[in-house]
Amino acid sequence: MDFIKTQTYHNLARGFAGECQAGMRYQLTAKAAMKQGYEALANVVRSIAKNETNHARVFFEQMLQNGGSRDDVHIDAHYPFHAGTLEENLRFAMADEEAEAENVYPSFAKIAREEGFGQIALKFEQIAKVESHHRIIFNYLAEAFKDGSLYAAERPMLWICSECGYMSAVRSVSGRSRSASSLHERSSLKNAAFLRRISGDQRRLSYEKEQQQGECRKAERQECAERSEQREELRQAESQRL
Ligand SMILES: [Fe+2]
Ligand SMILES: [Fe+2]
Q: What is the pLDDT of residues 45-61, one digit of tens each?
């Protein structure tokens, strides 16, 4: 079968375009967050934008490896072009990640497997897992942003500024002051507080991600072994016929 005529090739192209767009949308969200003084939030969103760029690279490489270089690839697809306030953008991102994780990439994986491209199916599945983690992070950001808990704790705790190392034991670090120095201090604390909470979540998520990647690698090895067994059986059947 000519690879470029398969639905899987088309889906890789759709995935590539979608990931590039998501990466750009998140960069714009990060820029808006920076403008509003939420530097740490911007850093988290920017790191997710970087993940999307890497997903785009994975799809692009699969297209090149299996279909070669092409000058004119037609893509028939729908993409989101929504934008709003910072909180709305976090919620849009959460919904987009959910759609990718639960519908888009699982269906692409199913089609790839049906068309006989097991390795590409695994790529779609691995990326779907990451998107489900992105959904969790965006959900957390949107909820915490809404209820004002991004930079607050139930009890006084030690916050360390990631910029200057300033330490302070406080319960809440939200709010702004007219004094320039105080504004800087409070703003740094806000970001430090946020970083502290997010980094815990990220450590847990990256642990889960590693576990899942390990499972995917195991499945990949198993698929490879099954294929070589099948090849061996075919070879033996052929030699018996001769
Ligand atoms: Fe992605
Ligand atoms: Fe994502």
A: 999 999 999 999 999 99
Region class of 116: left (phi > 0), else alpha (psi between -120 and 50), else beta: left
66: Cβ–Cβ under 8 A, 6 or more apart, which residues? 3, 9, 117, 120
Query: Over 60: is that where the pLDDT of 205 sits?
Result: no
User: Which SS3 state, helix, strand or coil, does residue 35 take?
Assistant: helix
Task: Report residue 17's pLDDT band, with 50, 70 and 90 as the boundaries.
Answer: very high
Considering the chain, what percentage of its residues have pLDDT values greater than 90?
53
Phi, psi of 169 (to 5 degrees): -95, 100
Q: What is the Cα–Cα distance from 147 to 159, expressed in whole angstroms?
A: 20
Q: How far is the CA of 30 from the centre of ligand 2 (A)?
A: 14
The two tokens of residue 138 are 């965006």
Q: Which ligand is nearest to the CA of 56?
A: 1
Q: Which tokens belong to 232?
A: 């061996």
pLDDT at position 214 over 90 = no
Q: Tell me the CA–centroid distance for residue 6 and ligand 2, in Å.
A: 25
| CB distance 186 to 159 below 8 Å | no
Give, as residue ranges, everything with CB less than 5 Å from ion ligand 2: 97, 131, 134
Helix axes 39-67, 7-35, angle to 10 degrees: 160
How far CA 194 is from CA of 91, 187, 188, in Å, comes to 18, 11, 10
